[in-house]
Amino acid sequence: MKPFAYQRAEAADSAVATISRTGAAYLAGGTNIVDLMKLGVTAPDLLIDVTGLPLRDIEALPDGGMRVGALTANSDLATDPVLRTRFPAVALALLSGASAQLRNRATIGGNLLQRTRCRYFVDVTKSCNKRRPGAGCAAREGEHTDLAILGASEQCVATNPSDLAVALALVDARVELLTEGGPASMSVHEFFRLPGDRPERDTNLPPGALITAVVLPATPIARMSTYRKVRDRSSFAFAAGSVAAALDVRDGVVQDVRLAYGAVAHRPWRAYAAERSLRGAPATVDNFERAADEELAAAKPLRDNGYKVPLIRNLTVGVLRGMTEASW
Amino acid sequence: MSTTTVGAGAGIGTSPLRPDGTLKVTGEFAFSSDLWADRMLWGATLRSPHPRARIVGIDLTGAVATTGVHAVLTAEDVPGKKLYGLEHADQPVLAMGQVRYAGEPVAIVAADHPETARRAAAAIVVEYEVLPPITDPVAAIDAEETVHDRGNLLRHVPIRKGSLEATAPVVVTGEYEVGMQDQAFLGPESGLAIPAEDGGVDLFIATQWLHGDLGQVADCLGLPPSKVRLSLAGVGGAFGGREDVSMQVHACMLALHTGRPVKMVYSREESFHGHVHRHPARMWYEHGADLDGRLVYVKARIVLDGGAYASTSMAVVANATTLGVGPYKVPNVVVDGYAVYTNNPPCGAMRGFGAVQACFAYESQMDKLAAALGLDPVDVRVRNALEPGDTMPTGQVVHGPAPVADLLDRVRAAAPPAQRGDDLRELPGGVANTTHGEGVRRGVGYGIGIKNVGFSEGFDDYSTARVRLEVVGGEPAAVVHTAAAEVGQGLVTIQAQIVRTELGVEQVTVATADTTVGSAGSSSASRQTYVTGGAVKAACEAVRAAVLRRAGRDDVTLRGGRLVTEGGEVVADLVDVLGDRPIEETVEWRHKPTHPLDPRTGQGDAHVQYAFAAHRATVDVDVELGLVRVVEIATAQDVGRALHPQSVRGQIAGGTAQGLGLAVMEEIQVVDGLIRNPSFTDYLIPTILDVPPMRIDVLELGDPSAPYGLRGVGEPPTISSTPAIVAAIRAATGLALNRVPVRPEHLTGT
Name one Pfam family in it (chain A) (predicted). Predict the structure, then answer.
């Protein structure tokens, strides 16, 4: 590991000022960045430990939304009774991630910044455009069963590893920031990005900005929401594919629906085409299948990850069917 | 170092508390990675990033110039033999002019801090001329390009029995593949070497075979064996992965060079590169049977990828081949096994040792045969089941119990698990809330396997035990000393139980295993309770005979610290007989000899003992999502005699879980000679949520030729659980599934 300096942040604004000036990195739970530093994937000169900052509150907002401090531990948020009522998909996504120990340590803000699990990204002896722009992408022809089927570019086929992010995309969460210019806010949809020709950028977070909170806007449909994840073993594994869904069915007709997919793209993938297809349609398995197929028509699987297309289709149908039956 | 006193009062056949048990579950057990010495330096290893390359030059300047570095050594600094190996010395201590696999050690560094050592190693500049790696073992057999000068074929084992031209009315064929499994022990390779005043070295090491290490380390250091002393440090699991030398020579070289203690501990990633793995296998099988399902012939070709160095590949391929038709009567056999050099990571010993790969293939074939004939899969197995007195494909007659049909009947008759409930934890995907049971189908599958116990093919397989009986604090007390490695299997407890049974004393101390006593052989091949247990028993018998001589009696036994006649009359106290003159006996004990295989026909009594286990697996498969939940395992195994019944069940449960891992998740993914998943994030081993409840049926049929009638227990459960689980997944899905591990992408329709 490259030598680095370590500081504890006294206040958020001074930390932001230092990071913006020096290109240093924030340290919160450390469950991802420390591993990446050990592997030499990232090598900041300075780590600023923000865990002492007062960013741990979970607020139930009077309008039905929630505001979650960035340093809230995943496990604390997952067990929050208000969250479980208002946003069950978010709680389920959190609980399906990592292990109990990691969830105790990891933070909500840090979760949004975790890096891809692409094996070529974490192996510094291999070419990876995300780690070293212009180096090439070894994953396209290599081991890529876990990688993207949607929205990838020639330069990068990485997937976002977060479960939480999928549920946040479902509920149109907003990310609150502190930048050098002061407080700012952006939608989670603006926050995450596709790789395009800038695969080195995971997010559109402004340089130096500190995530201070995640806001879950009041979303009545989210009370009927869920999250399902497919993985190689029963716990402590990243997703092969996942679906977050919210559904409002009345008299057998879809009044409103939201769908988001995980482990299929460089960002959590909101399935707008599927949602459009379903809104106002009878809640039938045929329609669920058609909706998923419309969304997945854009899929461009690689040699060995084509299984994700039927996986996501079946997962979509299974989740929506389950929710429909529950609502009858 | 430490000695161990095992809980009082418990002889063989009982389950006394393990002395290491509480320490391990409370985190207080001292593993080898916890070793410490004053003025200790830390070692680090520079490894090749390339699977095949010529070394054009090595520039050590950057490492030598690093503050805190005490030594930087390369192949030129190896004092003795530059090559080592368990069976065939072909592996360089440090690379000489070329590298043959990614991860091969090139240079070693000692520094005053582990991070300094790592950085110094990274500062070494090696100029490589990279060559295209040889990675396909099947193509490598006849390839012109070779990994070593001797060619790529490490060993070909042919087995010929009966007619080569046998034909049959029912023929099933199949091609099968087994991925590279890792032992995935939790304690990474580690050890501490301390230079001694006599110019020798003391090495405290987590290993499976102290004397196996000793011979190789002394040769490479150019020291007489008497100057290299090894003591067993706390071992965090082994499963075969510690049978080969890893950092033993390196740590000793650095200690001798610097004159200071040197500790080395591998990281998890380094561990994946630093030990051998289970051989990936490709296997082609053809089974011919009559219309009643009786086997007429089996033809098979088995290719094992040995990777860059020999390790134990020659013995592994002999096992895969000699056990290659399974526990069945087969009159005509043509099996050819090949172990092949490639530039992939070296492969060697892992629980099951060749028998695992073959069992996946022959059990898949038995299911195919049953399907072709419209027979029940258990019926077709029972119809062909090996019985005592039958001959193996090697011509070896099976002596003693061989309850193949009985084991199958038992797992078949076990009550089936309950139907699926609504509890998410019982569904594929478990608490991930993945499925609510819409696309879930249940399947049941069976598997039975055979394993040899002990070292084979004429190897002089023995163990040495020293037992001392003396009076301590007015009580008779025994000390038992062997070099046998406790790797977590419970051998320390067993040794004390045997002494207690044989000598009738309560107080038994098990001395730390080291090389001041003769070799115990390896803690592998399911052999250690058999062979070291046999040696301890024999040493106790020698001590008892000496006690009786001293007492002038030949009609008494030792019970409860007394000399007692058969009628129960106490004739003397052991304390009085011993007085202040301890009795100590050292015995070298051997099982019955084995014999080499004929190199052309594979005929010969190569194995000591056969062990058998059967599994029935019940699985729920979510066919839409490709998820498998193993619902229950029923298993039956003949262990001859259970010396510690709780440990026996532990071995059976643990072995079954390791077979489950191979069935549905565990694989080191190697692409172009490079390991793509060297971490426990990416190499998945089953968690407790993945391991189902097990019904374990332990038979104690007694092998008349083994100590106490026992039968090696550690490996058989790993062997047959894999094919049983895959058979159950096939039953649920109708898919062919000719490769393990089976993963979600193999199960979702595309």
Answer: FAD_binding_5
